[in-house]
Design goal:
Elements (H helix, E strand, L loop, with lengths): L26 H31 L14 H14 L7 H26 L1 E5 L4 E6 L8 E5 L1 H26 L1 E4 L5 E4 L5
Helix pairs in contact: 1-2, 1-3, 1-4, 2-3, 3-4
């Protein structure tokens, strides 16, 4: 039996540079593909801000003068360790609790990001949802889970909101007066290069 022909999915105003990469995709596949791109972008933004927070917590003079920084879960561990080494006078208890909560959310977000981005996606016709299969470190069986395209978009949205909270936390704790994009002066999250 021949697979049904799907019309070429479209995004208004978007013409893919290499259309052949999306040939045969239906709208659900296109939604997942775009959503995965958003997850990757938003997770990278969270990692960038977390790196800046780590640099401040660890009292590193310039962000990229030390060895290459960790990413994902390892970066979160570095942030937790640096935070624990600082006294309560350096980071007030309410701000500390807020950062710990956001580090927990980042850890869960990165775990899902890894499953979504590094997993193999296959449509399960029996249950009408997507199956993701991913190997996990230290395990002898793959991580298998059902999901849909909404989960990918929801994760991108959660990561975006987390990024915004982390930027506000960084400004409140370590912000510096700087010139804004509009030419005004205001408090900003600054990463010294």
């Amino acid at each position: 039996m021949q697979e049904p022909q799907h019309p070429m999915p479209t995004l208004p105003g978007f013409e893919p540079p290499i259309p052949g990469l999306i040939d045969g995709m239906d709208e659900e596949e296109l939604a997942i593909t775009v959503g995965l791109g958003l997850v990757a972008r938003e997770a990278a933004a969270v990692e960038y801000v977390l790196h800046g927070i780590y640099v401040h917590l660890a009292k590193v003079a310039k962000a990229y003068t030390a060895q290459a920084t960790a990413t994902g879960g390892a970066l979160i561990k570095q942030c937790r360790s640096a935070l624990e080494q600082l006294g309560d006078s350096a980071v007030p208890a309410t701000r500390r609790a807020s950062l710990v909560r956001d580090l927990d959310l980042a850890e869960e977000g990165f775990r899902l990001r890894n499953r979504f981005l590094h997993g193999y996606w296959q449509f399960d016709h029996e249950v009408q949802s997507w199956l993701t299969l991913k190997g996990a470190h230290g395990m002898t069986r793959p991580e298998i889970a059902h999901t849909d395209s909404d989960a990918v978009w929801e994760l991108a949205h959660r990561l975006q909101a987390l990024h915004d909270r982390l930027v506000h936390w960084d400004i409140a704790q370590f912000g510096e007066l700087a010139e804004t994009e509009n030419g005004d002066r205001g408090w900003a999250s600054v990463k010294h290069l």
